[in-house]
Write a structure and sequence with these properties.
480 residues; alpha/beta; five-stranded parallel beta sheet; two-stranded parallel ribbon
């Protein structure tokens, strides 16, 4: 069976499982993210800004584990773009971990300014605050390097996505991807970037009107057009495993009344539109979603596939018998159990959830991000059991990566620093970056500076695409 046939068969497996149709076997979707780097014997500082190394890690993973679907192709490495303007940022990495500092681009009072013109607010407020005094020293050559790094990153996304499909037969999950723009609700944007966890939690009590107004306006501008597009669409696009992907995290910091007001109105409109077209939405419910199960019971089988994290799959099936389940394999078991125990759990899940009749997809319950998140022999055992395809996994890469991490941490300690772990990092904005080129930023000011940047920095052959490219470039600099 060639890669194209393999890809087509896998899409069929995912589609049938999501629709509660009988399957020849249950598909396996892997949530391996940065664990792939350690598996290949590298550390994160070796892979995050080197696309050749990252591609090596992705290929090594798929060579060893013939999974049916993969959450991440190594594209969570925008550091090559952000680091052209200096070290640091909200997202950061060490040899063994990627982490994020809680940060806020806005106050509740300035949310309206961001909404009115995101590009202006980013150019005039966010970036000068993030980069400090260095902002005025980013000369033309610095900006050229930054935009070239952005184009290199974009090219890598396209290249690795094509390689995963054409060389390994691993299909794309859903049509909304980082290149086309993922579905992002207003409440999630507030949590992730605009207010941050701390400020949002306070603002929902003290600045209720501002928060509600922002969410309504954001969702009207960004979710409602998607709803209208879905309503005008035809049948599902069978070249993807699902018709849309949604990531939910904010429900974990909302009480039921806040969920009813800030999340459900737009989420319901979106899901209703997909249900009307007999399409399936994969929802990655980070944390727990079970306490809101009643909201999702109205949808027919074949509409929802929940990738669950903290919720028990059997309790989830009882609460939402109409929703397909993705998950079931905990990182605790995969990291600490034996291959026999992991395979036994697979059997329990398949039998207990009636997986042969559809409605279930094997996956890990969390993103595999750390070297100790899973033992290679355990992952090999479950992938072989589920897919029937042999694995070529061993622990040599993980052992080599751990040795490198220990050596680098020891050197850091010896030099008077702290071991490079993600634990204990201070919350708040990144430190002002020091990327002074001894030049003057010719693009300060909006709209004059921003327009000049578009004219002079975006390559001439990309000018027709600049309306789409520049917002994504700004978003990486703003949020990264």
């Amino acid at each position: 069976m060639d890669a194209k046939q393999l890809q087509t068969g896998r899409i069929g497996l995912f589609r049938s499982a999501a629709r509660f149709e009988p399957v020849d076997r249950v598909p396996y979707f892997s949530s391996a993210v940065t664990w792939k780097v350690f598996h290949a014997g590298h550390t994160l500082d070796e892979a995050m800004t080197d696309y050749a190394v990252m591609e090596e890690c992705v290929r090594a993973f798929l060579d060893a584990y013939p999974v049916d679907g993969l959450l991440d192709y190594g594209i969570r490495n925008q550091f090559g773009v952000t680091e052209t303007l200096g070290p640091g940022g909200y997202y950061y990495y060490t040899p063994e971990a990627i982490a994020i500092r809680d940060h806020a681009h806005c106050t509740p009072e300035t949310l309206k300014d961001f909404l009115a013109d995101p590009a202006r607010y980013t150019w005039e407020t966010v970036l000068p605050a993030k980069y400090g005094d260095a902002w005025r020293t980013f000369g033309r050559e610095t900006w050229k390097r930054a935009f070239k790094a952005y184009m290199d990153y974009t090219a890598f996304i396209i290249r690795i996505g094509s390689a995963v499909r054409k060389d390994y037969g691993v299909p794309s999950m859903a049509p909304n991807n980082p290149m086309k723009g993922a579905i992002s609700f207003g409440i999630e944007e507030l949590l992730a970037n605009l207010l941050g966890i701390k400020q949002l939690s306070i603002a929902m009590r003290r600045n209720k009107e501002e928060v509600e107004s922002f969410v309504r306006a954001w969702d009207e501008a960004r979710i409602d057009p998607i709803v209208e597009t879905v309503k005008k669409s035809g049948k599902p696009d069978e070249s993807y495993c699902f018709d849309a992907s949604v990531m939910m995290l904010a429900q974990n910091v909302l009480n039921p009344k806040q969920f009813e007001t800030l999340y459900w109105p737009s989420l319901e409109k979106l899901l209703d539109a997909y249900a009307e077209k007999h399409m399936n939405v994969r929802i990655f419910a980070e944390g727990s979603i079970l306490r809101y199960a009643e909201y999702f019971r109205k949808y027919p089988k074949g509409t929802l596939t929940f990738h669950i994290e903290a919720d028990d799959p059997f309790a989830f099936r009882e609460a939402l018998p109409n929703a397909a389940i993705m998950g079931g394999l905990t990182t605790d078991l995969l990291a600490n159990g034996t291959p026999e125990e992991c395979v036994r759990r697979c059997g329990e899940l398949a039998d207990g959830l009636g997986a042969k009749n559809g409605g279930f997809i094997f996956s890990e319950n969390k993103m595999l991000s750390y070297a100790n998140d899973v033992k290679p022999e355990n992952l090999a055992a479950v992938v072989e059991y589920v897919t029937g395809r042999p694995c070529k996994a061993d622990g040599n890469g993980i052992a080599a990566a751990k040795e490198k991490i220990a050596t680098k941490n020891a050197a850091e300690t010896e030099n008077g620093g702290k071991p490079q772990t993600a634990d204990g990092a201070a919350d708040g904005p990144a430190r002002p970056l020091n990327a002074s080129q001894g030049d003057e930023n010719p693009y300060v000011g909006y709209p004059e500076g921003y327009k000049r940047f578009s004219r002079e920095i975006v390559p001439f052959y990309l000018k027709p695409m600049s309306a789409a490219l520049l917002p994504l470039f700004l978003q990486i600099l703003r949020d990264g």
